[in-house]
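Fig. S4 source data, part A: sequence.
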Amino acid sequence: MFKVSEVYEKKYKSREERPDGTEYVTYLTKYATRESLINKDYIVAVHPHEFSSPLIEEKVCQSFPYGTKFCTLVVDGNSFRKSELLIVGSFEKLCGLLGG
């Protein structure tokens, strides 16, 4: 088994107040991590993550310390909810841990 920190969108409930004093609820999304165990036999590919848009990159960078590296871990899609996982860690570190 291989332990990774998976990045996911977490929804937060926020109460806001209007100028007239009434409250309303909004939902904010932030990026957070959760620990996951993955069988090495299911890993298909690992590559450095490239953000698809500047907005997503900005949101992710606000949630993590400056300089945090990310990788995309591709797993066998028939066995998991989604086949690409965004994980915390540099490509070089993952190559060393996976033995490549």
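Fig. S4 source data, part B ends here. Strands lie at 2-17, 23-38, 43-48, 70-75, 84-88.
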